[in-house]
Amino acid sequence: MHVLCAGDEFITPDLFVEALRPELPDDTTFTTHATRWPTEPWYATDEIAEASGDEDEIAEALHGADVLVTHLAPVTHRTLEGADRLRLVATPRGGPTNIDLEAATKRDVAVVNLPGRNALAVAEFTVGVLIAGRRNIAVSHARMRGGDWTGDLYRYDAAGPELAGSTVGLVGLGQVGTRVADLLRAFGVHLLAADPYVDPDVASERGVELVGLDELVRRSDVVSLHARLSAETRGMIDAEILGRMRPGAYLVNTARGELLVEDALADALRSGHLSGAALDVYVTEPPAPDHPLLSLPQVLTVSHLAGASTNVAHRAARRMAAEVARFTAGRPLQHCLNPEVLRGSP
Questions:
Q1: What pTM, to 2 d.p., does this model score?
Q2: Is residue 27's pLDDT more than 90?
């Protein structure tokens, strides 16, 4: 069996090989391919939304490969033309936006992914930027680097509130939202969540009160977004919803930029209706230098780093290796996106 490991500067090809080697037969051979993501941004085509790597190079590298393990390599009609033996594509991503699933299915190539691979990393990051934003940590750091002692931030009108005793509303109680809830309980907060797909009893068992979105924004001191992006959720946090938020409330978005109407958020911040926001994601990435949210002092802006931890890279490689081993042994796969192609495999 031959495996192509197509990595990048986050999950390197060598990480994939190191994880796969002990899981596969001794006669397995490997080739590697690397791109410069995230140093160089990903791109989109008509088939795929996020990918890194030249399609022609991937097509050539796929010649003779039985398995492709990749983070962001494009899997399209074009790249699959060179896949004369390919049976499995394994990608450690929650949403395999670099893969044309229809094209893979037409060629009887199974596709496996990894939901929740970075859920803990994103949850920790969410709590981190929430505290850093509300308690002026980020502002003080930036000003101190410029030689400005920030004693003025100790003034009552500048100081931020503690988490203890506050109400935090989670929009989405999936893999990330539940972990954020677990972390925040230790701070002594009251937790609300809006998620139409979660059983109220399940939420209650985690110490979360399940409510509708309108009630959540009216009652919450902090609103944190953790919903999946879909036609239903795109632009859900608009001017109307922001206007219903409690005066002085704080907004956190470490999910998807498209959940939020950015101009409406800028207006709510400029007017003083909201006290601030912490943002890791944007509708367009990278945002334009003149993006209104980048210049507002009460906004903590980060460059889509919530899922970036060394643990995520190692965890992703290990779990993909285990999935490839299940496939080669003919055992059931955990997260196959097109199980109809598995009849008679491997």
A1: 0.91
A2: yes
